[in-house]
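Protein 1 of 2
SEQ + STRUCT:
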Amino acid sequence: MSFGDPNNPYGQQPPQGQPGYPQQAPQGVPPQYGYPQQQPPQAAPQYGYPQQPPAAPYGGYPAPGMPGMPGMPGAGMPPLAHWGQRFGAYLLDVLITVVPMYLLGFIDLATGDNPDEPGVFFMIGVVYAIGMGFFQLYKEGSTGQTTGKKIVGISLRREADGNVLGFGMAFVRKLAHILDGIPCYIGWLWPLWDDKKQTFADKVCSTVVIQVPKG
């Protein structure tokens, strides 16, 4: 019997890889294990409605290029502050400015020798009220918020682009509040039914008051 006889069915067979184990790869070629890896399928085209643009951050104007809703008052703007929020912020600002002045005035009356003449405490109170008033105006122009607005969570902005007014324009708007008081103070109540919740001063100065996170 010859192992090299091609007619011998039991002759030596060429070596084959054992089942379950990969064959040894040539030198320099990494061994392949298991089934060959398939290429990731091509991304299928997306159908249906186009993706919506990201929403504007709360308290800020929408990103440039976002479509608005033409014909709707306040379209493209953050939520507008309602009348109760505006009144609450105004009341807080008045209390912060006026109450210390009156307290110092009462102290002056209680401790002064002549109640008809203003004393030191009263003068300190007046200086405090004036300084606090200008400080609140500066903060409103530079950040959009007085102390009261910051506590309530509202901010004064330009209607066109949502930027802050600056000190000069904030001062002009403060003077424009005279218009709110002339016709029986109806301008102060105008935000109750106005589409953009603006007072007369807001309309003259092209400003809006929006809602922002508190603090």
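Protein 2 of 2
SEQ + STRUCT:
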Amino acid sequence: MNSNDSDLQIAGDILSVQHLLQPAREHPATVAEFAGLARSIAADRAQWEHLVDYDATSRWYHRLRTGPGYEVWLLSWIPGQGSGLHDHGDSSGVLTVLDGRLTERAGPTGAIARELGAGAQRVFAPGYVHEVVNDSLEPAISLHVYFPGLTDMPMHGAQCAAPAAEDVVPA
């Protein structure tokens, strides 16, 4: 081997060997890709802004998209609305605040509080216990990606009763 040989001369150009390239994925498959999907949807307001509604009696939610093994939900929160302390069963998730401010209280008792403004993102694993609340004086909008899709949302705390699987409300 000559010291003047470059890596390209030694190994060859990977772009010329198509079978070594990974094909581009049509759908996300990793946590980073799901977080990226949420960021790309958040950036494209025309995709979701016209769908948002606000409900004074309960949180409004809309399934925005589904794919193999995941689903994307859009939620609105008027001041004072919250999810209650819960987990997402076997699903992992990405929570992204699109507009306004939300407070996330995490842990078995909800003792760890984080204020999340527009653009903030939280990633969580199955069994992660939290509550999301709009403690502000303005409405808020959030985007939730669940993988696999949300089938269970057990509530935590003495005052909460776990909903049936068909009554699952994303949070």
